[in-house]
## 1
Amino acid sequence: MPPTNKIILGTVQFGLEYGINNHSGKPTPATVNTILDVAFENSINILDTAEVYGNAQEVIGNYHLSSKNKFDVITKFSSSRNDLSENLKNRIRQNLNTLNIDSLYCYMFHSFNDFKKYFDFYKNEIAALKEEGLIKKFGVSVYTNHEIEELLGFEGIDVIQLPFNLLDNTQQRSSTIKKAKEKGVEIHTRSAFLQGLFFKNTNELPKKLIPLLPYLNEINSISKNNNIDLNSLSLNYAIQQNTIDHVLIGVDTVDQLIANISLLQKSISREVCQQIDSIIVKETDLLNPSNWN
């Protein structure tokens, strides 16, 4: 499998201003179209979106209307969208109409809380939607290993999306991912760049994130000592994990996408991976960006 095939392109940036290092705001529709063209030409065939990513679904749908390229799409259920039908089949059809596609690669619950609250109510409908081919897979987006462990007690979970990166690394995740793989679950990871945290000047760190400074310094040392830039280290570390099926990344510009694709031409050595694997973050709550505010 070419490494670009392993990438899923995130689209939150298409619908919302997102990320602590995003200084350019939402890309224009023309920029989005070029990003999607370049992605498709480079075998990046899956998009990740959600019902609460602003107008991202509409932007993707407009692209599908105007282009011969058709992406596989993951979208996510969010209980805050009161304008969408409570009937799941009708809701999926609304999403498909907006995205201008015939079926979803995967429909996910956007949070473990939504899964806990709604799965029993919807599980028969989910099975019927898979049977009918309107959704190929069903999944859940999670943050913690505890949430993954709990999910593995349920049937019908095809995909789990979780954070994985230089700090939220194999020390934190490998045993839980292994259990999920043994159950045949597809693993998607996000936060490869931890929302740009790895590239911030350490003297610019918000006060709340100061406890992460020793680990960020360690990452910078690994990068310098092995002559590998941080972008390459971050992306290839996730891509090279055999237990990870897909790695989700987001971009604001075409140049960022091209740069990320070019990073995959070089791999990082097993020794460098082991150096990263030896980093053990104790303040794990700070690895979740929703705790930064």
## 2
Amino acid sequence: MSSSRPNVPGLPWALGLTFYELAKYGRSGWWWRLHWAAWREFRGLDVGQVVRRHGGDSPGEFSYGETPGVTFLEILRLSGLKQGSTVLDLGSGRGLGVLTAALNGYKGVGLEMAGEYLNRARAVAQRVGVEVEFLQGDMLTLDWPESHLYFINSTAFPKAFRQSLVRRLEELAPGSLVVTYDWALHDGFKLLIERRLPVTWGTVKCRIYSL
């Protein structure tokens, strides 16, 4: 976990984010449909059990929390990505990021290892009436669909994992956008924007790059 995490209690912070989203999008029907559907599908799921099943003795990257919709949309705004463009979330978890993107005019693709998340995320997409492609597998070995923006919630990724991942990022098409959390990319990546943004566990340094 990044040392940039603020010293705030988890529940009040998460509630504050929810109220912020509510104030910003509460008049939008899509927000209510998405959160109601997500609650219906994910209630009763033991997230800790999912983390232990896939993370074993080193849960690391499986237990870092989520990017709220308000932050995901802010990233898309900052990136200048046009509606209709494809967004790939590498490690999409419950899929709320790409579902939010799809409900706001983007093409969403989520790649996730945990089938427990994917099955429910597909059901959420069906409930809200939006098309999102969800793929199951390891982001280091599975083929990535060609996309305009590649989003990586990378705060808790260990060094060796990042080194393997960056080799795949270097193979992306010129002009592709890459978004990382608390992870600076170097040779071959042009930094466009650096901004601190809120997520469910605190704040992260978000960087948007182009190749």
## 3
Amino acid sequence: MEKEKCKQEDLDYLLHTQWVPWEELEGKTILVTGSTGLIGFHLVRALLHASREKGLGVRVIAQARDKEKGEWMYRDLLPHSGLEFLWGNVETLPQVDGPVDYIVHGAGVTASREMVERPVETIWTTVQGMRNLLELAREKKTLGVVFLSSMEVYGRQTSGEVIGEDCDAHLDPGNLRDCYPVSKALAESLCVSYAREYGIRTSCLRLSQVLGCLERRGNTGEKKIIQQIFDDIRNGRDIRLLTKGGSKRTYVYIRDAISAILVALLKGEGFFNVSDEESYCSIRELCEMAVHELAEDRIRVVVEGKELPQYPKENFLNLTSKRLRSLGWQPSVGLREALWRIRE
């Protein structure tokens, strides 16, 4: 299936999905931070598509650090009467003019190596950015805030048992790599605190590994595992896993992540796991699935089995989305189909 066709299908799916009450966004302003990241980019596009097709008159403020990158990524939407940019970082949030009815906070460090090499900046971006946005929500009397957290807030889980939102976390502040999940957990605590003390409705989404396409230009630095897999398949190279690839996790396709955000934004409050429970598998199993499905077993998966500080220790994050499903949400694309839809 061609990528452009998949993108359009995803937009149309989101437009017509029964559990997103789009009419509640009519005339509203939504601030999306991290708008050049995978999730932020697709969320902005979904909001603008729905606004155009349904005549909602939505105003989207897309925050991003890099003006040149942002304008390039959104080049096919410019000029757009419903799209505005907020250039700058969330740690020193620029002034936001006019009303802000909803906020989705997705800005943050995502590269594992940067988490180890720049742990202070990793923590500060998440925590100070969250505080700034919650203060903005107080000022603007915002109707709802969604924080894009991570399944990593559960820390190291060794049993493989199903993880609900009330599961105990096992984080190690002394482990440098845990600066990322510790900062996410603290940002979640800020959301709960602002909700209790100031009455701001907040939702924290503990996202599984999100699978989706994002057009890139030039050197983008560290590649995610899924990008490495596709690079190797495209070039006919064996997939080399630096670690044992034994960690297991759940996944979620990008359009299902976007629909989860919209449901939580308009109908939810508190903590929500976002996962396709049937996708639970190890990193090695994911690679082997990709080799079989997309490369027809013409290449191999080679396991080097190293222990590297930039990667978490072997972990088993078997998330259930039962609480989110109670709001009507459900995943629509399984792991195998997701690989086909995002293949490069």
## 4
Amino acid sequence: MPHKFLLTFLFIALSQYCPGQQDYALSFRNTQLASKRVIDAIKKYDDSASHEFKRKNSPYPPKDIFLRVFKLQNEMELWARNNENNEYKFIKLFRVCAISGSLGPKRTQGDRQVPEGFYFIEDFNPQSDYYLSMQLNYPNYSDSMQGKGKLGGDIFIHGGCVTIGCLPMTDEGIKELYTICLNARLNGQEYIPVHVFPTRLTNSGMAYLKHEYPKDPARQQFWTEMKSSFDYFEKTHKLLPVMYGMDGKYVY
């Protein structure tokens, strides 16, 4: 959908909400579209995003998107589907500029680790110090139960290409991704899942992790928990629901 039609589309879509939802949605929309950075991003990338989705036979604006991050490869995959019964289709690969810390989950404030686990985007910041940013719901339940002391927070996908625990992109990269994610949010997707893995958890990937961290059984166990979800998506292109045990471990 060309950007010149975006505001009309958003008004029509939001008018279908119930009053309470509509008030919140309109407030969110107005805040986003009052930002020159957001408007500039939409003007530059909405048309090209629309063509990319069309080329992959996926509707745009999207109704359901999913981000999958692989820290070792500095890669972020964008997937999309039209409804919950469909399989996700791969849309595009984005580059993550840098990853701080080592492979493995974030377990305490100040460890410079990029979190690993299953998250969702909970906020959009059009006035970020790093151009544009989208906040992850770190710490999640698993982090809270398995972390130590203060866990920290403020984990974002953002521009600026610098990091001490976030997922940075170039300013151009975040403009494009922010445009797509904002479109999905305004099109009704309240929670956009973001799965952050150390690497692709194939058999060879698991062998690499075992070789690199042979004396760290806690990390090995954590990655084994995550592998079930990774494997399921690889086979079906669908997501398993995120479930936790009482101890915060991922269970399936």
